[in-house]
Each structure stands twice: as structure tokens, then as C-alpha cells.
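Dear colleagues,

As part of the handover before I leave the project, I'm documenting each prediction I ran so the next person doesn't have to rerun anything. This entry is a single chain, and its sequence is reproduced below.
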Amino acid sequence: MENLKTKPKDFFLIIGSMVALYAIVINLLNLLFTIINYAYPAINTYYYGYYNTASISFPVAFLIIVFPIFVVIDWFLAKSFTETPEKKDLPIKKWLSYLTLFISGLVVAGSLVTVLYYFLDGKDLTAGFLLKFLSVFVVSVLVFGYYISDIKDILTSRSKKIWLSSAILIILISIVLGFVIIGSPKSQRLKRLDFEKINDIQQLQSSVVSFWQVNNKLPQGLEEVRGQYGYFDMNQPDSSKPYEYSIVSPNSFEICAEFNFDSGDQNNYNRSIMDVDIKYNYTTPSDWSYKEGRSCFTYVINEEIYKPSVR
């Protein structure tokens, strides 16, 4: 036992297994938190659907690729330990196992302390907060339970299959739930394009207002604005259709676009946009919500606040 040395193969398998485990846990929790944030958005927080949905892509891709790699590495380790049982006492394995046990134990205790603190302090225990706590608690308990069993050397072939099946089930449910709640990669792309259209329309608004300030009149078309401020694209990102522009009154105009989805409840997002636009002295639409298909946004320029430079 004293002469047992860690071979390079054992070293990299053990290190690889631990690194993969930590990365899988982090990305699984990231995925679960994204789903919870989407289902239970925080109040008074900048919120827009695309930013919640976009973050699902990486954790899902990571779990799909890395989890099978982790299973294969763990299989090689189990095979090695079966052939040479003394390897279970390798210092690097014991250190990393106890470190994982220590970290998972801290996370479990910290989660319980946080919930108790929120309760005693009278803070709102929202559904989103409780679901996040439950996610962290369950994942940490599973990791803690597995490694305490491994350290006590009471893991059997049957119990390992149960642990593996439980992990696969949790990951599969998380991935499926993410796609069910947030949507497929195609729908996420279309939502991103809708968000880009809102950004484009805001840039167009800014350019038209600047044109009005310099020329004391609204442009007859976006081509006229582009001649003066030629740094924006007049076409919508998912088609060759240009953004529609029309004059409503001497100091107001309308910009329209084709959207792929309804914006839904974007109240927090709308308030954030209003705050930004008030800072820059624009009078904007009452909100930035839109319906699937053609939606228009009317802008009224406040002449008392945003005075033209030419009279």
C-alpha cells in the first residue's frame, strides 16, 4: 500500500472526473435557474425574454456532450478500481473526494441557512426563490450522498446504476423542461431576431429625432435619414423587407416591423426603456410590446424639451 503510486492514467482520469462533475453541476443549476427565472421573473428587474432564453443554449449543449464523457470516465475508473482495489486509497482520489464532500456539505448548509434567514427576517419567500433553493439543495444532497457512500466504500454495482439513472433522469427532465417552457432553438432564434428589431427601431428613432433637430422637419423617408446618418441598416434582420416609416404629424412619426411572436408581458422591460429614453429627452411609446405579425410604434417629439437647432 505504501509503495502504491499514482500513474499518469489514474491521475488524469480522477482529475477529469472531478472537473467534469463540477462543470456538470454548475451548468445543470444554470439551466434550472434560467428556467425558473423565465417561469417566475423577478419584479423590478430588467427583463426581456431573449436574455432569459438565450442562456439555455450553452448549458444544454454542455450537458449533452460532457455528461456522457463523465459517465465514460467514471466507467474506466470503476473498472480500474475493480482490477486494482488498492487504487481506491490513492491520495489524489481521497483528497478530491473529501473536498467534494466538504463543498457539497457547505452548499447544503448554506442553502438551509439562507432560507431560514429569509423566513426570520420577514422576506418574501417567492416561488422562484424556493424553487432555486430546492434545485441547489437536491443537487447538493445527491452529490453529498454519492461521495459519502463512495468514501465509506458501500457503493455496489446496483447502487451505482441507481445513482446514474437518477442523474440521467434529472438532466433529461431539465433539458426537456427547458425546451418546453422556453422553446426550441428555432423559436429562440426568432425571438432573438424580434429583439434585434426592437433595437433597430430604437436606433432609427434616434436618427430620425437627430434629423428633425438639425433640419427642423421630419424626413420624408428613411433613405433621407441614411443620407445624413449612413450607419444603420434599413432592412429587417430576418428578411429583405425594410422597416416601414411614415409621418403622423409635424413632430411625430411611426415605424413598423414584422414580428415572429407576441412580446408577452414585458412591463419591466418597458419601464427600463422608458427610463433610458426619458434620460435622453425622447417621448416614446407607452410600451414596447408587440403582436405577432405587423406592429407599429409611434414617436412624439417633445419640442419644449428637445428643441431643434434650426428655426
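Residues 255 and 277 are 16 Å apart (CA to CA). The two ends are 93 Å apart (CA to CA).

All the best with the project,
I.
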